[in-house]
Amino acid sequence: MADLSIQTASLETVVAGLRAGWLSAAAVADWAVANHEARGEALHAYKAFDTDRVRREADLADAAFAVHNDLGPLQGIPVSIKDLFGVAGYPTFAGCPRELPEEWRREGPVVRSLRRQLAVISGKTHTVQFAYGGLGANPHWGAPRNPWDASAHRSPGGSSSGAGVSLWEGSALLAIGSDTAGSVRIPASMTGTAGIRPTSGRWSTGGIVPLSPALDTAGVLARTVADMTIGFGAIDPGVEEDALVWTRRLAAAELADFRVGLCDWYFEDCDPGIAEGVRSALGELERAGLRLSPATMPQFEPATELFRQGGLHVGDFTRFINGEMSAYRDDLDPAVAIRIEAMEALPASEHLQRVHRLGELSHEAHRSFDGLHALVGPTLPLTPPVMSEISDAEDHLRKNLRLVRNTNTASLLGMCAVTLPVALDSAEMPVGLHIVARGGDEETALTLALACERALGWARERIGTPPMCRT
Questions:
Q1: What are phi and psi of 395, to 5 degrees?
Q2: CA-to-CA distance for 393 and 3, rounded, in angstroms?
Q3: Residues 202 and 33 sit within 8 Å (Cβ to Cβ)
Q4: In 100-149, where do the E strands start and end?
Q5: How far apart are CA 134 and CA 187, in angstroms?
Q6: Spatial contact of 64 and 71, defined as CB atoms under 8 Å apart
Q7: Which domain holds residue 147?
């Protein structure tokens, strides 16, 4: 199989080739390494990339295939992992200027699931320091480059800032990130890839440096919804059948099977071309059979107001950074430190009141679905900004609060969500369609997203290839 065909092939095709023997894990690893060597310096997706380790892990996958030992669909598949996860053989920095203590190298259940299948870890991708921010900035290591703008360094999204970039770089076929207020969906939307936030608690957060334990979750990014669904199914402990079989079953659904709420709240205060791009895509989907109905979620605004006041994440992180990570307090990014300083006097009683209030809002919001399978709208209201425009801590904070407006509601209200690319905005940057389902209803969100992708086309078909990845 030629390099170009790996670049454009579906994950299902690559998995089938590896299982049938007409493609080797070593060949896929060579493709990933070659792409990293060609584009890695310009795109800056990785904190650590170990070429020798990539090739050794691919050889192990091939050795297992040679004796007909199929350990799972991700065997031999290159997967990038956010530098917030413990990965054996790699240090964990979590975006800090110094390595974190040895305990943060330990692998948790998500990474161990990849290991059991002999996935190939392509490396550890950059993150915003301690995952605290959605714009991808990191004063210690620099931000990855959004490949959709060849002339200006634009935000790649965060906090999983290298995840989406690694997919377009061609050094990974799946990317693992974490999502607290949007940190999988934001980089997926900004880079024109697909991403899923599972419901908090569905996947273990063991082995992941925490931001807000009540809201944190690991998630998957991929080049397409179909690829992402295979990755999700291969990792999720609740999916008992082969992930390819499971994905094909979900993909059999039709758009007409779904009644979806068009939530005007998501369309407010969008940069030029974002709301228009999503509405145009929804019009296509409606003509293809999707049943759209107006929907209101009165719980979104009070939940967002709580987020503006610090939500749960500020209190959780303040205790973490002032407790076991106090040695790293002086190294904090000013954009993070400014939020911590403002919230250090928050009493525990206020934090508990917020937990209780968000629980009430979540219960009400889930009842408000009222026969709807999901809610839809733009994933983000903001065009990826030029990084030099957010270098000031106060400017960064203002932009970040606006950025996460749409994504944080699903997080705070205990929902799951998927994003997929559907358009380019007026700045020729990717626009994501946000599909939000009830907590625990990932299968519905994925099934709907697969039907949408089938109607609209894969990312390369729909929005093209980023200018920095066309050669």
A1: -65, -40
A2: 42
A3: no
A4: 120-125
A5: 8
A6: yes
A7: 3-469
Report yes or no: 183 and 160 within 8 Å, Cβ to Cβ.
Answer: yes
For the chain, the straight-line distance linking the first and the last C-alpha, in angstroms and rounded, comes to 18
Count of the separate structural domains present in the chain = 1
For residue 124 the two structure tokens come to 């550890």
Query: Is there a contact between 75 and 119 (Cβ–Cβ < 8 Å)?
Result: yes
Residue 284 tokens, joined: 């296509």
Q: d(Cα 448, Cα 259) in Å, to the nearest integer?
A: 10
- Interval 239-260: pLDDT, tens: 999 999 999 999 999 999 999 9
Q: pTM for the full model?
A: 0.97
Give the orientation angle of helix 274-287 with respect to helix 442-456, to 10 degrees: 90
Q: How far is CA 445 from CA 9, 143, 338, 414, in A?
A: 24, 30, 36, 14
* Pick from 427, 433, 421: nearest CA to 464: 421
407-465: per-residue pLDDT in tens? 999 999 999 999 999 999 999 999 999 999 999 999 999 999 999 999 999 999 999 99
What is the rounded CA–CA span in Å between residue 189 and residue 425? 12
Contact assessment for residue 133 and residue 391, using Cβ atoms and an 8 Å cutoff: no
- In sequence order, the β-bridge partners of residue 235 are none
- Active-site residues, by number, are 82, 159, 183
The tokens describing 410, both together, are 């699903």
Residues 6+ apart with CB under 8 A from 391: 137
The number of C-alpha atoms within 13 Å of 326 and in the hemisphere containing its C-beta is: 4
CA 213 to each of CA 112, 198, 204, 459: distance values in angstroms, whole numbers, following the listed order: 20, 14, 10, 33
Give me the CATH number covering residue 210: 3.90.1300.10
Work out the average pLDDT over 282-310. 94
CA neighbor of 46 nearest in space, from 37, 59, 57: 37
Tokens encoding 279 = 């509405």
The CA–CA distances, whole Å, from 340 to 159, 239, 309 equal 17, 39, 12
Strand partners, 115: none
* 213 within 8 A of 179, measured Cβ to Cβ: no
